Amino acid sequence: xxxxxxxxxxxxxxxxxxxxxxxxxxxxxxxxxxxxxxxxxxxxxxxxxxxxxxxxxxxxxxxxxxxxxxxxxxxxxxxxxxxxxxxxxxxxxxxxxxxxxxxxxxxxxxxxxxxxxxxxxxxxxxxxxxxxxxxxxxxxxxxxxxxxxxxxxxxxxxxxxxxxxxxxxxxxxxxxxxxxxxxxxxxxxxxxxxxxxxxxxxxxxxxxxxxxxxxxxxxxxxxxxxxxxxxxxxxxxxxxxxxxxxxxxxxxxxxxxxxxxxxxxxxxxxxxxxxxxxxxxxxxxxxxxxxxxxxxxxxxxxxxxxxxxxxxxxxxxxxxxxxxxxxxxxxxxxxxxxxxxxxxxxxxxxxxxxxxxxxxxxxxxxxxxxxxxxxxxxxxxxxxxxxxxxxxxxxxxxxxxxxxxxxxxxxxxxxxxxxxxxxxxxxxxxxxxxxxxxxxxxxxxxxxxxxxxxxxxxxxxxxxxxxxxxxxxxxxxxxxxxxxxxxxxxxxxxxxxxxxxxxxxxxxxxxxxxxxxxxxxxxxxxxxxxxxxxxxxxxxxxxxxxxxxxxxxxxxxxxxxxxxxxxxxxxxxxxxxxxxxxxxxxxxxxxxxx
Length: 594
What we know:
Blueprint: H1 9-17, H2 22-71, E1 94-95, E2 101-113, H3 121-131, H4 137-145, E3 151-157, H5 159-168, E4 173-182, H6 190-193, E5 195-201, E6 206-212, H7 213-217, H8 219-223, E7 232-233, H9 238-254, E8 259-266, E9 272-278, H10 317-326, E10 335-337, E11 342-344, E12 347-349, E13 358-360, H11 361-367, H12 370-380, H13 382-391, H14 418-424, H15 434-445, H16 470-485, E14 500-509, E15 515-528, E16 535-542, E17 546-548, E18 551-553, H17 560-574
Parallel strand pairs: 1-7
Antiparallel strand pairs: 1-2, 2-3, 2-4, 5-6, 8-9, 8-16, 10-13, 11-12, 14-15, 15-16, 17-18
Helix pairs in contact: 3-4, 3-5, 9-17, 10-12, 10-16, 11-16, 12-14
């Protein structure tokens, strides 16, 4: 900036020559300098005011935008900050084979308190006790007025309860978001699903973990965030499962049984289409496990299909006949001496009825002769019998994919003697689960291949190792069909579906040894349709009894078999099976053409 002198010589000298006062020039220049300084100061002040105004405009716009955003969002309670790693609260759904929901997630809230922030602890405790009748008012007052700074009140609350607590208006009562497990079908397939609970918890989230069933078996898969959009597909059919449980419950009540279980299994894939155990429970409100010393089978948590280890009686006889035919020792028409009682040392094996002196192998299965089956076991031998049952998976826990299945370890004699082989041949002296039995009958039905039962949906048949030649498996199927059409399981016949099967009635063992005289485990194992086997059905009743024709009946032919028949009649249409007319026997008739 060029500074103008107050008394410039170029103006002073001419002014003196004209006789003017040079001081006037100085005063004029000084006034001009003051005007320039004033203009510059005003410009600086105006610039500063513009910057300040712009700052205030931006601040008011930001505040106004935030207020507008908050006015359009849901109000949330302040939550206490917690340390540690974040809690993963995402869990994949569980669906049936058709994609229908069996287990999913549901958003809810938890309720907790921070007593130091409470305005009126006594009033809050009183109103909370009214909203939640299970809470004790005096205990709440003690907690709220004590030294505690934080306490959980409810881990899960409904929207209605949340609104009621919100209406209390105490700032010390706070809500935390929760993702809980929901089973929309209630008790349906309860023992398969098992249930879930909270693991690691914080005020902002809670970890959902499986505690039983497939929820626990596949916990890692279900908790993996990568699988959030990939539900776990089970082999169950929701419609079939519902009908199964309805019929089984009605049968259990009608037969006055203590408990019941049933398994429907695809003989080619091993898929378990339905599996039920009664009594059952609601996984949305899973009961506590029984206390020590309590009979576990009396608890609704007990899964009889995989945890119930029972002597399954005469259902085992078909395995004995099939092995004898597989070894070439007999054929279906081989005649066996059944005169009895059959003695081995001090033990005697008897038949339920007197069937005469001899029966063919087919008739032994049809009439359910203990003596005839024991004679076959003598020919087979203990070592070969044990190896065959091992091939059928009868001597180890089933690989069925729920955690409870590992507890269904079969019970067998330590010394597998000839006597053991004889009693095991008709289902006594060895205890297995109904799931073992279903897998064994599936091997007969599918042409002689063992197939492991599975709860997971399969895309194709699974062929296991071969345990029987196809012709032996077919001969065994024919025998099972005769048991229903002409033998001990006539009440299991369902017209149009060619049911084959075997009854089994075993005395129930006492906890301290020995057997009850008036309590049995009644089982019926079925294959249908025999001409083109697709499914195996096992029905087991615990302590059934029914009065028929003036007598008290407990045997499986009177109890488990009719329940299975009703179940097949209900389930077959749901499975897409159309009834077929069986060809009649044309004995003595010659067909001629016109």
